[in-house]
């Protein structure tokens, strides 16, 4: 395991820098939009545009990598994402910001696909789980680190957008300088919604719920925190508290779900997330520690649901179907994340900022009701037939190949690298 991590150390550094810039930008955009007096609905649409871009990027990534190669694709998308970040400060206008956030979403989806293809190529069956776990830590750490830059400058200015652009551009260096051979091109995602819903209604509903609630939270949550008297820096701490809650609960919840019906753990997470949502909806202003504590509980309840839903769905799927299960759930999550920000913004515009968390509470209690109903309609999977819990990031379809539950293909596959084309077998580098 240590040698595997050493071989991808530069790549993981790139991931951390990239996620720091992305984490800063995801919180900065709604705060800056508020400072520029954008309407709540306009901010919600900007948030949704990012996830529209993520969905487009999931489908575009394999084509781009196949035609340009991993390194050139990574460099091009890094340059485009850097330019999009800078343009936020140069062109302050809602429609332009929608286009820029959609562009950023496309770029980050492709960047994740390149990174995760490389991580998969540098791991094997003996260490894929460990590499994936470490990748999760880097993801959470980078997103949390990005929030702390909000203390340095006011959101409605060019400095923080410049810092975000700087970190995104620096993330290209470890990949551009790598001497490793290019990994195989990731497969294009497929969505078999009717089959997936029949396989696991709770899994599909869980993925959609997480997308809707978390998409709304990441877009409107910073505005809510700022209006509650926390300021821009406090809004970053508010988001960080939710990330820490997810880190604290994700792995223990997963291990518990390996020993009992996962739907009970999903239901428990829904109760915690719903209760935290109600608390945040009615919390008084200027109560920072109460807000941070409730944000921690919200993250602890809401954020593990996706991985739990993925594990629950995997329990009913054949090993040969795991790629389609994982990519299908990711795309369903993205659909929810497109809906969430706009729905929350429309609600907040006609009510109060706390209505954001009233929406997330209703969403989580709705999933709770479905989960309880399904407990009466379907027997649990016997413990010996359950797949082990895997904390799957919601990044790109390429991360599926890091999932230890996905069988390694034995047949040959076609691979086109940066210099040309050739056929290689699994475990070999192209020549």
From TrEMBL:
Q: Where is this region: Disordered?
A: 404-431
Keywords annotated in UniProt: Membrane, Transmembrane, Transmembrane helix
Checking Pfam families in the record gives: MFS_1
Quick check: keyword Transmembrane in the entry?
yes
The name on file for this protein is MFS transporter
Tell me which species this is from: Microbaculum marinisediminis
Annotated Polar residues bias: 420-431
The record's section on PANTHER family has:
MFS TRANSPORTER, TRANSPORTER MFS SUPERFAMILY
Molecular function via GO: transmembrane transporter activity
Q: Where are the transmembrane segments?
A: 41-61, 73-92, 98-119, 131-150, 156-177, 198-220, 232-253, 265-283, 289-308, 329-348, 354-373
Q: Which GO terms describe its cellular component?
A: plasma membrane
């Amino acid at each position: 395991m240590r040698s595997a991590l050493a071989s991808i150390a530069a790549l993981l550094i790139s991931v951390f820098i990239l996620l720091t810039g992305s984490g800063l930008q995801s919180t900065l955009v709604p705060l800056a939009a508020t400072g520029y007096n954008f309407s709540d609905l306009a901010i919600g649409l900007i948030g949704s545009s990012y996830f529209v871009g993520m969905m487009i990027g999931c489908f575009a990534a394999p084509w781009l990598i196949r035609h340009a190669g991993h390194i050139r694709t990574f460099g091009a998308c890094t340059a485009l994402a850097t330019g999009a970040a800078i343009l936020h400060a140069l062109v302050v206008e809602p429609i332009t910001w929608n286009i820029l956030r959609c562009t950023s979403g496309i770029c980050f989806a492709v960047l994740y696909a390149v990174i995760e293809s490389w991580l998969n190529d540098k791991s094997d069956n003996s260490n894929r789980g460990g590499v994936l776990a470490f990748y999760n830590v880097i993801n959470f750490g980078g997103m949390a680190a990005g929030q702390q830059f909000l203390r340095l400058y006011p959101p409605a200015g060019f400095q923080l957008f410049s810092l975000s652009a700087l970190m995104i551009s620096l993330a290209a260096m470890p990949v551009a300088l790598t001497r490793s051979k290019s990994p195989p091109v990731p497969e294009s995602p497929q969505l078999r919604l009717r089959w997936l819903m029949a396989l696991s209604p709770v899994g599909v509903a869980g993925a959609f719920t997480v997308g809707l609630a978390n998409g709304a939270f990441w877009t409107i949550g910073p505005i809510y925190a700022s209006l509650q008297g926390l300021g821009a820096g406090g809004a970053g701490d508010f988001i960080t508290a939710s990330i820490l809650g997810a880190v604290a609960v994700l792995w223990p919840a997963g291990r518990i779900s390996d020993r009992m019906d996962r739907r009970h753990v999903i239901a428990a997470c829904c109760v915690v997330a719903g209760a935290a949502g109600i608390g945040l909806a009615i919390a008084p202003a200027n109560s920072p520690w109460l807000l941070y504590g409730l944000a921690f509980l919200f993250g602890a309840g809401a954020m593990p649901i996706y991985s739990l839903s993925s594990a629950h769905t995997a329990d009913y799927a054949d090993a040969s179907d795991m790629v389609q299960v994982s990519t299908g759930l990711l795309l369903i999550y993205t659909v929810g994340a497109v809906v969430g920000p706009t729905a929350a913004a429309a609600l907040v515009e006609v009510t109060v900022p706390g209505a954001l968390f009233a929406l997330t509470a209703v969403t989580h209690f709705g999933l709770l009701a479905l989960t309880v109903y399904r407990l009466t309609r379907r027997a649990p999977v016997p413990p010996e037939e359950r797949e082990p819990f895997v904390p799957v990031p919601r990044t790109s379809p390429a991360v599926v190949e890091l999932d230890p539950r996905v069988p390694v293909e034995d047949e040959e596959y076609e691979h086109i690298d940066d210099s040309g084309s050739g056929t290689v077998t699994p475990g070999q580098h192209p020549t």
